[in-house]
Specification:
By secondary structure, this protein is an alpha/beta fold. It contains five helices and ten strands. A six-stranded mixed beta sheet has the order 8-6-2-3-5-9. Strands 1-7 form a two-stranded antiparallel sheet. Strands 4-10 form a two-stranded antiparallel ribbon. The N and C termini lie far apart (about 35 Å).
Length: about 160
C-alpha cells in the first residue's frame, strides 16, 4: 500500500517512470547503493523524528548522520527518533521504505543541505525494495519540503 501511495504521489509530477523495484532489499543505505550501483552517499536517506510530538522527516545524504547539537539548535529540543513500530502510523510508510512521497498530511519534510553535494539522488519509494532516481530540482518539487536545513555530519 505504501508503495502505491508513493507512486501515485510521484505520478502527479510525471516522475513515476523513474521508479525502480528490486528483487532484493533496498531498505538500508548499503543495500540500496548495491541495488542501484551507486555510491552510498547518493542515497537520500529519510529519517523520522518527533518535534513537539509532531512527526517530521529529515532527508539527508546516505553518508550523513544527525548532528545532535545542530538538530537541537534548529528545533530547540533533543533529537527524538520515532520508534520503528510507530513510523508507519505516524508517517505513512514502514521503516525501510520511508520517503517523503505519499506521506500523511500532517508530516513536515526537511531536506538537509548534504543532498546539495549531488546532482542526482536516490530516495526510497514507499517499500523496502524500491527507489527512484531524481535530480535535486525534481526531489525538491516532489517532496513538498518545508525548508533546507543543516543538521547533519559525515559518518566516520
Amino acid at each position: 500500500m505504501s508503495f502505491i501511495k508513493a507512486k501515485e504521489h510521484l505520478e502527479k509530477y510525471g516522475l513515476d517512470s523513474n521508479i525502480k523495484e528490486f528483487d532484493t532489499s533496498s531498505a538500508t543505505v548499503k543495500e540500496a547503493a548495491i541495488a542501484l550501483n551507486c555510491k552510498e552517499a547518493e542515497i537520500a536517506k529519510t529519517l523520522s523524528f518527533l518535534v513537539s510530538d509532531k512527526p517530521i522527516l529529515i532527508v539527508t545524504a546516505g553518508n550523513r548522520k544527525i548532528d545532535n547539537a545542530k538538530y537541537k539548535s534548529k528545533f530547540n529540543e533533543k533529537a527524538k527518533m520515532i520508534k520503528a513500530d510507530e513510523v508507519e502510523p505516524l508517517i505513512g510508510h514502514k521503516v525501510g521504505g520511508v520517503c517523503p512521497f505519499g506521506i500523511n498530511n500532517d508530516v513536515d519534510v526537511y531536506l538537509d543541505i548534504s543532498l546539495k553535494d549531488f546532482d542526482i539522488v536516490y530516495p526510497a519509494c514507499g517499500s523496502s525494495n524500491s527507489a527512484i532516481k531524481l535530480t535535486i530540482k525534481e526531489f525538491e518539487e516532489a517532496s513538498n519540503y518545508k525548508e533546507w536545513i543543516d543538521v547533519c555530519k559525515i559518518i566516520e
